[in-house]
Specification:
By secondary structure, the protein is of the alpha/beta class. It is about 40% helix and about 15% strand. The protein has 2 domains: about 5-145 and about 150-210, Alpha-Beta Barrel (TIM Barrel), CATH 3.20.20.70; about 275-350, no CATH class. Its cofactor is [4Fe-4S] cluster.
């Protein structure tokens, strides 16, 4: 566990077809700033949390509050990242002014959400303004992309859809560096070499955090034909290492084990009594259902639920969608009971079998 997420608002100025959490102009509300500061104070007491991500929705619809929250996170000794669609980078000057302002507040990293569905609302020039300004101000340019493809059978490196996307935005696929590969390499370097490589990244590279389109959120309706679907019997087991280890708090104070798809099911939030966020996170992480998802993946848990009499849609689009389907039909206690079946079967050296 290294990152916690604060969903400052679920409102967004745009309503992209692929959005996995239904963000858009029709969503209302934002996190109370004092409550957000209290969450940060509690997260600061957890040494395993290194980063706090401010996300949404579009958090930069509230720039003053986000700035104050960044300052508070830094005062509490944590690194802070921001995820945004970059609507504020409409001109080169505005992009640079905003990034300078955020860096002065203490922001460590900023990631721009970028994909073909954003182009229905925001011009490609915003991405170029952001990247150019990031290099000037001293941020490593980072873009987060969703592309079409097969979640369960990822090809080596970035898929062709990503290359085409980056070229269309004028960002140059040849400069792209996978964020996970970059992070592992950075961790292997001595401090002086790490600083040199970071400077090179700021000057020359484009960090890319990409994932395949899932069938969650708005995409289930708007992009059904673009999602790769398969029956459960043809779905490989794929574990999810972040389940319960990316604690996410939404604008209403609900605690989730990841930033999607759990957020789409507020009735499945974990209890987080006031002043006990750290304890609630540790208790959530230890829940049987999340242990099974981390160790074997949601398919194993779904098979156990089927053995208990639950039924699910014939097809799925990968691990996020499998979780979404389970959350739509089983409450937290039912998930844990099915997970305990899996854990007992594993201890006994057998599998939980189900008809699929």
């Amino acid at each position: 566990m290294s990152t916690a997420v604060l969903l400052y608002t679920m409102r967004c100025n745009i309503a992209c077809a692929h959005c996995s959490v239904h963000s858009g102009p029709g969503r209302r509300g934002e996190m109370d700033l004092e409550r957000a500061r209290a969450y940060v104070d509690q997260l600061a007491a957890m040494p395993e949390i290194r980063f706090i991500d401010i996300s949404g929705g579009e958090p930069m619809l509230h720039p003053q509050e986000v700035t104050a929250l960044i300052e508070h996170i830094k005062r509490r000794g944590k690194s802070v990242r921001l995820t945004t669609n970059g609507f504020w980078a409409a001109t080169p000057r505005r992009a640079e002014e905003m990034l300078r302002h955020l860096k002065a507040a203490g922001l460590d990293a900023v990631g721009l959400s970028l994909d073909k569905w954003h182009l229905d609302y925001l011009p490609a020039s915003i991405a170029r303004n952001y990247v150019d300004a990031a290099r000037v101000v001293g941020f490593a340019p980072l873009v987060s992309c969703v592309v079409r493809g097969d979640c369960a059978d990822p090809r080596a490196g970035a898929p062709e859809d990503l290359r085409v996307l980056l070229d269309f935005y004028g960002l140059g696929e040849e400069r792209a560096t996978d964020l996970n590969d970059w992070g592992r390499y950075m961790d292997s370097l001595a401090p002086e070499a790490r600083a040199e490589f970071l400077a090179e990244t700021i000057r020359e590279r484009l960090l890319v955090n990409w994932q395949y389109l899932t069938g969650e959120g708005r995409a289930a309706e708007k992009l059904h034909k673009e999602v790769v679907w398969r029956p459960l019997s043809a779905t490989p087991e794929e574990r999810c290492s972040v389940a319960g280890r990316m604690p996410t708090v939404d604008q209403d104070g609900r605690l989730f084990p990841c930033c999607a798809p759990w957020v789409n099911h507020p009735e499945r939030a974990y209890a987080a009594p006031p002043g006990r966020l750290g304890q609630a996170i540790h208790e959530m992480e230890a829940r049987p259902a999340l242990r099974v998802i981390r160790q074997w993946g949601p398919k194993r848990l779904m098979l156990a639920l089927i053995a208990r009499g639950h039924s699910f849609p014939r097809d799925n689009s990968g691990i996020c969608n499998l979780c979404g389907q389970m959350l739509a039909t089983a409450d937290l206690e039912e998930l844990d009971r099915a997970a305990e079946d899996v854990l007992r079967a594993q201890t006994a050296g057998r599998e939980v079998m189900a008809e699929i």
